[in-house]
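Inputs:
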Amino acid sequence: MIKTDVVIIGAGPTGLFCAHQLGIIGLKCEIVDNLDKIGGQCIELYPDKPIYDIPAVPKCTGEELTNNLIEQIKPFNFNFHLSDRVQELKNENNKWLVKTLNGKEFETPNIVIAGGVGSFEPRKFPTKSAEKYDGKSVLYSIKDKTIFKDKSVVIFGGGDSALDWAIELSNSSKVTLVHRRDEFRGAPASVQKIKELSDNKTIDLITKYLIKDVKGNGSLESVEIKSETGESKVIKADYVLGFFGLIMQLGPIAEWGLNLDKKTIPVNTENFETNKKGIFAIGDICTYPGKLKLILSGFHEGALAARGCFKYARPDEKYRFEFTTASSTIKDRLGVKE
Amino acid sequence: MAKIKYIEFNGTEHEADVANGLSVMEGAIQNDIPGIDADCGGGMSCATCHVYINDDEWFRKLPEKEMGEDDMLDQAFEPKSNSRLSCQLIVSDDLDGLTVHMPEKQV
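Outputs:
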Protein backbone atom coordinates (compact mmCIF):
# COMPACT_ATOMS: atom_id res chain seq x y z
CA MET A 1 0.00 0.00 0.00
CA ILE A 2 1.48 3.33 -1.10
CA LYS A 3 0.36 6.34 0.96
CA THR A 4 0.40 9.63 -0.86
CA ASP A 5 -1.27 13.05 -0.94
CA VAL A 6 -2.69 12.71 -4.44
CA VAL A 7 -3.12 10.02 -7.09
CA ILE A 8 -3.23 11.51 -10.58
CA ILE A 9 -4.95 9.43 -13.22
CA GLY A 10 -3.46 10.29 -16.61
CA ALA A 11 0.04 11.36 -17.57
CA GLY A 12 -0.94 13.75 -20.34
CA PRO A 13 0.05 17.42 -20.26
CA THR A 14 -2.73 18.33 -17.83
CA GLY A 15 -1.82 15.58 -15.34
CA LEU A 16 1.87 16.44 -15.60
CA PHE A 17 1.36 20.13 -14.95
CA CYS A 18 -0.98 19.39 -12.05
CA ALA A 19 1.84 17.24 -10.61
CA HIS A 20 4.12 20.25 -10.99
CA GLN A 21 1.70 22.45 -9.11
CA LEU A 22 1.38 19.84 -6.34
CA GLY A 23 5.16 19.71 -6.06
CA ILE A 24 5.35 23.48 -5.85
CA ILE A 25 2.93 23.59 -2.92
CA GLY A 26 4.71 20.73 -1.16
CA LEU A 27 2.43 17.78 -1.85
CA LYS A 28 3.41 14.32 -3.06
CA CYS A 29 1.68 12.46 -5.83
CA GLU A 30 1.70 9.19 -7.75
CA ILE A 31 0.80 9.19 -11.44
CA VAL A 32 -0.95 6.26 -13.15
CA ASP A 33 -1.39 5.91 -16.91
CA ASN A 34 -2.71 3.18 -19.12
CA LEU A 35 -0.19 3.86 -21.90
CA ASP A 36 3.36 2.56 -21.72
CA LYS A 37 4.75 6.07 -22.04
CA ILE A 38 4.25 9.52 -20.57
CA GLY A 39 2.41 12.18 -22.59
CA GLY A 40 -1.18 11.08 -23.19
CA GLN A 41 -2.84 12.21 -26.42
CA CYS A 42 0.17 14.46 -27.19
CA ILE A 43 2.43 11.47 -27.50
CA GLU A 44 -0.05 8.89 -28.76
CA LEU A 45 -2.05 10.90 -31.28
CA TYR A 46 0.20 13.73 -32.45
CA PRO A 47 3.84 13.44 -31.30
CA ASP A 48 5.07 15.17 -34.49
CA LYS A 49 2.22 17.62 -35.04
CA PRO A 50 3.08 21.19 -34.10
CA ILE A 51 0.95 22.88 -31.44
CA TYR A 52 0.67 26.68 -31.78
CA ASP A 53 -1.37 27.71 -28.76
CA ILE A 54 0.76 27.01 -25.72
CA PRO A 55 1.25 30.42 -24.07
CA ALA A 56 4.73 31.82 -24.69
CA VAL A 57 5.68 28.82 -26.84
CA PRO A 58 5.05 29.87 -30.45
CA LYS A 59 5.37 26.33 -31.76
CA CYS A 60 6.17 22.91 -30.34
CA THR A 61 5.30 19.31 -31.09
CA GLY A 62 3.39 17.00 -28.76
CA GLU A 63 6.62 15.22 -28.01
CA GLU A 64 8.53 18.42 -27.21
CA LEU A 65 5.75 19.63 -24.94
CA THR A 66 5.76 16.31 -23.10
CA ASN A 67 9.54 16.29 -22.69
CA ASN A 68 9.50 19.83 -21.32
CA LEU A 69 6.79 18.97 -18.81
CA ILE A 70 8.73 15.89 -17.69
CA GLU A 71 11.79 18.10 -17.25
CA GLN A 72 9.74 20.62 -15.29
CA ILE A 73 8.58 18.08 -12.68
CA LYS A 74 11.90 16.24 -12.41
CA PRO A 75 12.92 17.99 -9.14
CA PHE A 76 9.97 16.37 -7.37
CA ASN A 77 10.86 12.75 -8.24
CA PHE A 78 7.26 11.63 -8.54
CA ASN A 79 6.56 8.00 -9.37
CA PHE A 80 4.92 6.99 -12.62
CA HIS A 81 2.92 3.78 -12.87
CA LEU A 82 2.67 3.18 -16.63
CA SER A 83 0.82 0.43 -18.53
CA ASP A 84 -1.54 0.30 -15.59
CA ARG A 85 -5.07 1.50 -15.03
CA VAL A 86 -6.95 2.59 -11.93
CA GLN A 87 -9.70 0.07 -11.64
CA GLU A 88 -11.41 0.52 -8.28
CA LEU A 89 -12.00 3.32 -5.80
CA LYS A 90 -13.30 2.87 -2.29
CA ASN A 91 -13.81 5.50 0.39
CA GLU A 92 -12.83 4.65 3.95
CA ASN A 93 -12.62 7.26 6.74
CA ASN A 94 -12.27 10.12 4.27
CA LYS A 95 -9.42 8.39 2.45
CA TRP A 96 -9.64 6.91 -0.99
CA LEU A 97 -8.34 3.40 -1.45
CA VAL A 98 -7.25 3.02 -5.04
CA LYS A 99 -6.61 -0.30 -6.78
CA THR A 100 -5.04 -0.73 -10.19
CA LEU A 101 -5.35 -3.44 -12.79
CA ASN A 102 -1.83 -4.66 -11.99
CA GLY A 103 -2.69 -4.94 -8.31
CA LYS A 104 -1.08 -1.78 -6.98
CA GLU A 105 -2.83 -0.10 -4.05
CA PHE A 106 -2.76 3.51 -2.93
CA GLU A 107 -4.22 5.31 0.05
CA THR A 108 -4.85 9.00 -0.59
CA PRO A 109 -7.18 11.83 0.42
CA ASN A 110 -7.21 13.12 -3.17
CA ILE A 111 -7.63 11.76 -6.67
CA VAL A 112 -7.18 13.95 -9.71
CA ILE A 113 -8.69 12.53 -12.87
CA ALA A 114 -6.77 13.96 -15.81
CA GLY A 115 -7.82 11.17 -18.07
CA GLY A 116 -8.39 12.95 -21.39
CA VAL A 117 -11.26 11.14 -23.00
CA GLY A 118 -10.49 7.92 -21.17
CA SER A 119 -7.86 5.27 -21.64
CA PHE A 120 -6.47 4.21 -24.99
CA GLU A 121 -7.55 0.76 -26.12
CA PRO A 122 -7.02 -0.90 -29.49
CA ARG A 123 -9.93 -0.51 -31.87
CA LYS A 124 -11.50 -3.90 -32.41
CA PHE A 125 -13.31 -5.54 -35.31
CA PRO A 126 -16.98 -4.53 -35.33
CA THR A 127 -18.06 -8.11 -36.06
CA LYS A 128 -19.66 -9.86 -33.10
CA SER A 129 -18.22 -13.22 -34.15
CA ALA A 130 -14.66 -11.91 -33.69
CA GLU A 131 -15.16 -11.52 -29.94
CA LYS A 132 -15.19 -15.30 -29.43
CA TYR A 133 -11.62 -15.52 -30.68
CA ASP A 134 -10.37 -12.29 -29.10
CA GLY A 135 -6.92 -12.77 -27.59
CA LYS A 136 -6.58 -16.28 -29.05
CA SER A 137 -6.67 -16.13 -32.84
CA VAL A 138 -8.09 -12.61 -33.34
CA LEU A 139 -5.38 -10.25 -32.15
CA TYR A 140 -4.83 -6.49 -32.02
CA SER A 141 -1.19 -6.56 -30.94
CA ILE A 142 1.60 -9.09 -31.22
CA LYS A 143 3.59 -10.32 -28.27
CA ASP A 144 5.11 -13.50 -29.68
CA LYS A 145 5.53 -13.65 -33.43
CA THR A 146 6.68 -17.29 -33.44
CA ILE A 147 3.05 -18.47 -33.07
CA PHE A 148 2.44 -17.42 -36.70
CA LYS A 149 5.14 -19.66 -38.22
CA ASP A 150 3.74 -21.60 -41.21
CA LYS A 151 0.22 -20.34 -40.47
CA SER A 152 -2.28 -18.39 -42.57
CA VAL A 153 -2.46 -14.88 -41.23
CA VAL A 154 -4.97 -12.28 -42.45
CA ILE A 155 -4.01 -8.73 -41.53
CA PHE A 156 -6.42 -5.77 -41.69
CA GLY A 157 -5.35 -2.14 -41.78
CA GLY A 158 -3.43 0.41 -43.82
CA GLY A 159 -1.11 2.04 -41.33
CA ASP A 160 2.43 1.30 -40.30
CA SER A 161 1.55 -1.48 -37.83
CA ALA A 162 -0.41 -3.40 -40.47
CA LEU A 163 2.26 -2.91 -43.16
CA ASP A 164 5.23 -3.64 -40.91
CA TRP A 165 3.71 -6.86 -39.61
CA ALA A 166 2.63 -7.95 -43.09
CA ILE A 167 6.23 -7.50 -44.27
CA GLU A 168 7.75 -9.15 -41.20
CA LEU A 169 5.41 -12.14 -41.13
CA SER A 170 5.63 -12.73 -44.88
CA ASN A 171 8.98 -14.47 -44.23
CA SER A 172 7.46 -17.33 -42.31
CA SER A 173 3.67 -17.22 -42.75
CA LYS A 174 1.10 -17.06 -45.52
CA VAL A 175 0.05 -13.44 -45.28
CA THR A 176 -3.03 -11.74 -46.72
CA LEU A 177 -3.29 -7.99 -46.23
CA VAL A 178 -6.78 -6.49 -46.48
CA HIS A 179 -7.39 -2.75 -46.60
CA ARG A 180 -10.47 -0.64 -47.30
CA ARG A 181 -8.92 1.48 -50.07
CA ASP A 182 -6.02 1.49 -52.53
CA GLU A 183 -4.02 4.11 -50.65
CA PHE A 184 -2.12 3.35 -47.47
CA ARG A 185 -1.25 5.73 -44.69
CA GLY A 186 1.94 3.86 -43.74
CA ALA A 187 5.45 5.04 -44.54
CA PRO A 188 6.10 5.27 -48.31
CA ALA A 189 8.99 2.75 -48.11
CA SER A 190 6.71 0.18 -46.46
CA VAL A 191 3.98 0.80 -49.02
CA GLN A 192 6.54 0.25 -51.78
CA LYS A 193 7.71 -2.99 -50.14
CA ILE A 194 4.14 -4.25 -49.77
CA LYS A 195 3.52 -3.62 -53.48
CA GLU A 196 6.67 -5.58 -54.36
CA LEU A 197 5.68 -8.47 -52.12
CA SER A 198 2.24 -8.46 -53.69
CA ASP A 199 3.65 -8.31 -57.25
CA ASN A 200 5.91 -11.30 -56.65
CA LYS A 201 3.05 -13.15 -54.94
CA THR A 202 4.75 -13.40 -51.55
CA ILE A 203 1.67 -11.88 -49.98
CA ASP A 204 -1.93 -11.53 -51.11
CA LEU A 205 -2.99 -7.92 -51.16
CA ILE A 206 -6.74 -7.26 -51.23
CA THR A 207 -8.00 -3.69 -51.25
CA LYS A 208 -11.46 -2.14 -51.07
CA TYR A 209 -12.67 -4.85 -48.73
CA LEU A 210 -13.74 -4.82 -45.08
CA ILE A 211 -14.17 -7.65 -42.61
CA LYS A 212 -17.61 -9.25 -42.63
CA ASP A 213 -17.37 -12.31 -40.42
CA VAL A 214 -14.95 -14.76 -38.87
CA LYS A 215 -15.78 -18.43 -38.98
CA GLY A 216 -14.60 -21.50 -37.18
CA ASN A 217 -15.60 -24.50 -35.23
CA GLY A 218 -13.88 -24.14 -31.90
CA SER A 219 -10.77 -22.85 -33.58
CA LEU A 220 -10.68 -20.13 -36.20
CA GLU A 221 -10.87 -21.40 -39.79
CA SER A 222 -11.61 -18.51 -42.10
CA VAL A 223 -12.50 -14.90 -42.42
CA GLU A 224 -15.13 -13.51 -44.76
CA ILE A 225 -14.59 -10.10 -46.29
CA LYS A 226 -16.95 -7.83 -48.20
CA SER A 227 -16.63 -5.03 -50.69
CA GLU A 228 -18.73 -1.90 -50.70
CA THR A 229 -20.53 -3.14 -53.79
CA GLY A 230 -21.60 -6.33 -52.04
CA GLU A 231 -19.11 -8.94 -53.24
CA SER A 232 -17.68 -11.23 -50.61
CA LYS A 233 -14.72 -13.58 -50.35
CA VAL A 234 -13.71 -16.22 -47.85
CA ILE A 235 -10.04 -16.55 -46.92
CA LYS A 236 -8.53 -19.37 -44.93
CA ALA A 237 -7.15 -18.01 -41.68
CA ASP A 238 -5.46 -19.39 -38.59
CA TYR A 239 -5.00 -15.89 -37.24
CA VAL A 240 -6.70 -12.57 -37.94
CA LEU A 241 -4.88 -9.40 -36.97
CA GLY A 242 -6.51 -5.95 -36.83
CA PHE A 243 -4.51 -2.73 -36.73
CA PHE A 244 -6.94 0.18 -36.60
CA GLY A 245 -5.15 2.40 -34.13
CA LEU A 246 -6.37 3.22 -30.67
CA ILE A 247 -9.63 4.54 -29.36
CA MET A 248 -10.30 6.26 -26.09
CA GLN A 249 -12.67 4.48 -23.70
CA LEU A 250 -13.95 5.97 -20.48
CA GLY A 251 -13.62 2.51 -18.92
CA PRO A 252 -13.89 2.08 -15.14
CA ILE A 253 -14.19 5.86 -14.51
CA ALA A 254 -17.86 5.50 -15.44
CA GLU A 255 -18.42 3.21 -12.44
CA TRP A 256 -17.17 5.39 -9.62
CA GLY A 257 -20.45 7.15 -8.91
CA LEU A 258 -19.35 10.42 -10.48
CA ASN A 259 -21.90 12.62 -12.18
CA LEU A 260 -21.36 12.27 -15.91
CA ASP A 261 -22.42 14.45 -18.82
CA LYS A 262 -21.95 12.30 -21.92
CA LYS A 263 -18.33 11.23 -21.53
CA THR A 264 -17.28 14.16 -19.35
CA ILE A 265 -17.36 14.91 -15.63
CA PRO A 266 -19.01 18.12 -14.38
CA VAL A 267 -16.89 20.06 -11.88
CA ASN A 268 -17.10 23.33 -10.01
CA THR A 269 -14.67 25.89 -11.33
CA GLU A 270 -13.37 26.97 -7.95
CA ASN A 271 -11.24 23.88 -7.39
CA PHE A 272 -12.35 21.40 -10.07
CA GLU A 273 -13.82 19.01 -7.54
CA THR A 274 -16.47 16.60 -8.78
CA ASN A 275 -19.61 15.56 -6.92
CA LYS A 276 -17.38 13.27 -4.81
CA LYS A 277 -15.33 14.85 -2.05
CA GLY A 278 -11.62 14.54 -2.80
CA ILE A 279 -12.07 13.56 -6.44
CA PHE A 280 -11.10 16.26 -8.89
CA ALA A 281 -11.32 16.25 -12.69
CA ILE A 282 -9.23 18.40 -15.00
CA GLY A 283 -8.41 18.65 -18.70
CA ASP A 284 -10.50 17.23 -21.53
CA ILE A 285 -12.45 14.95 -19.20
CA CYS A 286 -14.03 17.73 -17.13
CA THR A 287 -16.86 19.99 -18.14
CA TYR A 288 -18.29 23.29 -16.90
CA PRO A 289 -19.94 26.30 -18.55
CA GLY A 290 -17.51 27.75 -21.06
CA LYS A 291 -15.12 24.76 -21.02
CA LEU A 292 -12.49 24.80 -23.76
CA LYS A 293 -10.64 21.60 -24.58
CA LEU A 294 -7.28 23.33 -24.77
CA ILE A 295 -4.04 22.29 -23.14
CA LEU A 296 -3.72 25.74 -21.61
CA SER A 297 -7.12 25.35 -19.93
CA GLY A 298 -5.93 22.03 -18.52
CA PHE A 299 -2.92 23.78 -17.00
CA HIS A 300 -5.15 26.32 -15.25
CA GLU A 301 -7.50 23.61 -14.05
CA GLY A 302 -4.58 21.59 -12.66
CA ALA A 303 -3.24 24.58 -10.74
CA LEU A 304 -6.58 25.14 -9.03
CA ALA A 305 -7.21 21.44 -8.39
CA ALA A 306 -3.79 21.21 -6.71
CA ARG A 307 -4.85 23.90 -4.21
CA GLY A 308 -8.11 21.99 -3.72
CA CYS A 309 -6.08 18.89 -2.85
CA PHE A 310 -4.06 20.83 -0.28
CA LYS A 311 -7.11 21.29 1.93
CA TYR A 312 -7.64 17.53 2.32
CA ALA A 313 -3.96 16.54 2.37
CA ARG A 314 -2.99 19.11 5.05
CA PRO A 315 -6.24 19.75 6.94
CA ASP A 316 -4.42 21.43 9.82
CA GLU A 317 -2.38 23.82 7.70
CA LYS A 318 -3.44 26.93 5.91
CA TYR A 319 -2.43 27.17 2.28
CA ARG A 320 -0.27 30.22 1.59
CA PHE A 321 -0.05 31.57 -1.93
CA GLU A 322 3.53 32.15 -3.05
CA PHE A 323 5.32 33.08 -6.26
CA THR A 324 8.08 30.85 -7.65
CA THR A 325 10.14 33.97 -8.31
CA ALA A 326 10.15 35.02 -4.66
CA SER A 327 9.58 32.03 -2.39
CA SER A 328 12.66 30.39 -0.92
CA THR A 329 10.51 27.42 0.17
CA ILE A 330 9.50 26.80 -3.43
CA LYS A 331 13.07 27.20 -4.60
CA ASP A 332 14.13 24.56 -2.06
CA ARG A 333 11.46 22.21 -3.39
CA LEU A 334 12.75 22.79 -6.90
CA GLY A 335 16.32 22.26 -5.76
CA VAL A 336 17.30 25.65 -7.14
CA LYS A 337 20.62 26.92 -5.82
CA GLU A 338 21.19 30.66 -5.74
CA MET B 1 -26.41 29.53 -41.57
CA ALA B 2 -27.38 26.16 -42.98
CA LYS B 3 -30.09 23.67 -42.15
CA ILE B 4 -28.39 20.31 -41.66
CA LYS B 5 -30.28 17.06 -41.38
CA TYR B 6 -28.72 14.33 -39.24
CA ILE B 7 -30.15 10.84 -39.59
CA GLU B 8 -29.28 8.26 -36.96
CA PHE B 9 -28.59 4.66 -37.95
CA ASN B 10 -32.03 3.68 -36.64
CA GLY B 11 -33.65 6.23 -38.94
CA THR B 12 -34.40 8.94 -36.37
CA GLU B 13 -34.08 12.32 -38.05
CA HIS B 14 -32.84 15.55 -36.47
CA GLU B 15 -32.64 18.96 -38.06
CA ALA B 16 -30.47 21.80 -36.84
CA ASP B 17 -29.71 25.33 -37.95
CA VAL B 18 -25.95 25.50 -37.79
CA ALA B 19 -24.11 28.81 -37.90
CA ASN B 20 -21.53 29.42 -40.61
CA GLY B 21 -18.03 28.58 -39.50
CA LEU B 22 -19.02 25.76 -37.18
CA SER B 23 -18.43 22.19 -38.29
CA VAL B 24 -21.21 19.72 -39.01
CA MET B 25 -19.85 17.82 -35.98
CA GLU B 26 -20.22 20.88 -33.72
CA GLY B 27 -23.75 21.37 -35.03
CA ALA B 28 -24.61 17.89 -33.75
CA ILE B 29 -22.84 18.25 -30.40
CA GLN B 30 -24.32 21.68 -29.64
CA ASN B 31 -27.81 20.45 -30.40
CA ASP B 32 -27.42 17.21 -28.40
CA ILE B 33 -27.92 15.07 -31.47
CA PRO B 34 -26.84 11.50 -30.71
CA GLY B 35 -24.67 9.38 -33.00
CA ILE B 36 -21.62 11.63 -33.26
CA ASP B 37 -19.11 11.26 -30.41
CA ALA B 38 -16.23 13.54 -31.44
CA ASP B 39 -13.90 12.25 -28.73
CA CYS B 40 -10.96 14.40 -29.81
CA GLY B 41 -13.04 17.56 -30.09
CA GLY B 42 -12.46 18.18 -33.79
CA GLY B 43 -8.74 17.56 -34.16
CA MET B 44 -9.08 14.94 -36.90
CA SER B 45 -7.44 12.43 -34.61
CA CYS B 46 -10.15 10.00 -33.50
CA ALA B 47 -12.64 9.16 -36.30
CA THR B 48 -15.64 9.20 -33.93
CA CYS B 49 -17.55 11.88 -35.87
CA HIS B 50 -17.83 9.66 -38.93
CA VAL B 51 -20.83 10.23 -41.23
CA TYR B 52 -21.99 9.05 -44.65
CA ILE B 53 -23.09 11.44 -47.37
CA ASN B 54 -25.55 9.22 -49.18
CA ASP B 55 -26.49 11.76 -51.83
CA ASP B 56 -23.86 11.61 -54.61
CA GLU B 57 -24.41 15.16 -55.70
CA TRP B 58 -23.89 16.46 -52.17
CA PHE B 59 -20.83 14.28 -51.71
CA ARG B 60 -19.22 15.82 -54.80
CA LYS B 61 -20.25 19.32 -53.77
CA LEU B 62 -18.48 19.15 -50.39
CA PRO B 63 -14.97 20.54 -50.07
CA GLU B 64 -12.41 17.80 -50.85
CA LYS B 65 -10.85 15.80 -48.07
CA GLU B 66 -7.65 17.24 -46.74
CA MET B 67 -4.59 15.15 -46.12
CA GLY B 68 -5.13 12.87 -43.20
CA GLU B 69 -8.90 12.59 -43.29
CA ASP B 70 -8.88 9.31 -45.21
CA ASP B 71 -6.14 8.01 -42.91
CA MET B 72 -8.42 8.57 -39.95
CA LEU B 73 -11.41 7.12 -41.81
CA ASP B 74 -9.40 3.89 -42.18
CA GLN B 75 -9.94 3.50 -38.47
CA ALA B 76 -13.64 4.32 -38.41
CA PHE B 77 -16.49 1.82 -38.15
CA GLU B 78 -17.49 0.56 -41.64
CA PRO B 79 -15.99 3.33 -43.74
CA LYS B 80 -17.32 3.63 -47.28
CA SER B 81 -16.37 5.71 -50.29
CA ASN B 82 -18.96 8.31 -49.23
CA SER B 83 -17.60 8.57 -45.68
CA ARG B 84 -16.53 11.88 -44.20
CA LEU B 85 -15.42 13.13 -40.83
CA SER B 86 -18.06 15.67 -39.83
CA CYS B 87 -15.48 17.75 -37.95
CA GLN B 88 -13.93 18.56 -41.31
CA LEU B 89 -17.16 19.81 -42.90
CA ILE B 90 -17.29 23.52 -42.18
CA VAL B 91 -20.75 25.01 -42.47
CA SER B 92 -21.49 27.83 -44.89
CA ASP B 93 -24.65 28.91 -46.71
CA ASP B 94 -23.61 26.46 -49.44
CA LEU B 95 -24.26 23.55 -47.10
CA ASP B 96 -27.91 24.50 -46.54
CA GLY B 97 -29.96 21.32 -46.99
CA LEU B 98 -27.13 18.84 -46.43
CA THR B 99 -28.15 15.45 -45.03
CA VAL B 100 -25.66 13.25 -43.20
CA HIS B 101 -26.27 9.67 -42.11
CA MET B 102 -24.66 8.30 -38.98
CA PRO B 103 -23.01 4.87 -38.93
CA GLU B 104 -24.27 2.12 -36.64
CA LYS B 105 -21.64 3.15 -34.10
CA GLN B 106 -18.60 5.32 -33.60
CA VAL B 107 -15.88 2.91 -32.51
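Remarks. Helices of chain B lie at 24-30, 56-61, 69-73. The beta strands of chain B are 2-7, 13-18, 50-52, 83-85, 99-101.
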